[in-house]
């Protein structure tokens, strides 16, 4: 670790989640150096005095390097690319913490390669989005060697409200995939009852108000209320990314011979969102698919609802 009070931090990936998470570490007093493929995405952090690296390998001198990328292939690229990867240049940081949602196989392969280079690799996928990060309600699930967990724990606790340690290997990958499957299934359930209510003459605002006040309500249902009531589909998580996670989960179900009929059905509905032109919108466009299947055209209720994060 650094001789300073806090370790120096590198951050790879400044997308919808990476940028706010890196900013949270800056707020917590860490010295952060960042890299992103699209350099302009680093401008807001640069304006706050954060150093922007010109290449991934410029981060090898940091005590801990975080990665937050979209897919398994992206993670392999930023860490294992022979010409540019963080771990393939002969020198590397002591610890790499990956916050992405990737496959167990990719995580295991990266971990094994990292260990051969003397690097500690730690899985720490997160639940939330930029607004959840800003509200301090991000949840982290993590796995890896217990000693590594204790080393990086203060960093992880700076990212959000909870950190759950689940094992010494790839367990965190599985838990995050399970979590995202629930996101899709729950959203489909909400979509169906809201369309049913529409045909029965009940406003979506009223249904969501009751659900959010009941035992069925949760942070997620509250957060999605503006999207479902006012049709605000500004993307926080796209159908493309959700489909990727459903496919990872279904691959696990095949491996362990666990039938998941509901998951298979919802996966097909998520696919419909993409096929019907909502690939770059929020995955709550599942509501529009449910409405179209019922012969209903929805309009915004323009209701004064909030997402519960204020």
How many domains, in number, for the residues?
Answer: 2
**Number of strand segments:** 9
User: Element order, helices and strands?
Assistant: EHEHEEHEHEEHEHEHHHHHH
Which fold name corresponds to the CATH topology of the largest domain?
Rossmann fold
Which architecture of the largest domain would the CATH scheme give at its second level?
3-Layer(aba) Sandwich
- Overall mean pLDDT stands at 96
Q: Runs with pLDDT <50, length 5+?
A: none
Which term fits the overall shape? globular
CATH superfamily of the largest domain: NAD(P)-binding Rossmann-like Domain
Fraction of residues in helix: 40-55%
The CATH class of the largest domain turns out to be Alpha Beta
Q: How large is the share of residues in beta strands?
A: 5-15%
Count of runs of 4 or more consecutive helical residues: 12
Major sheet description: 6 strands, parallel
N-to-C span: 36 Å
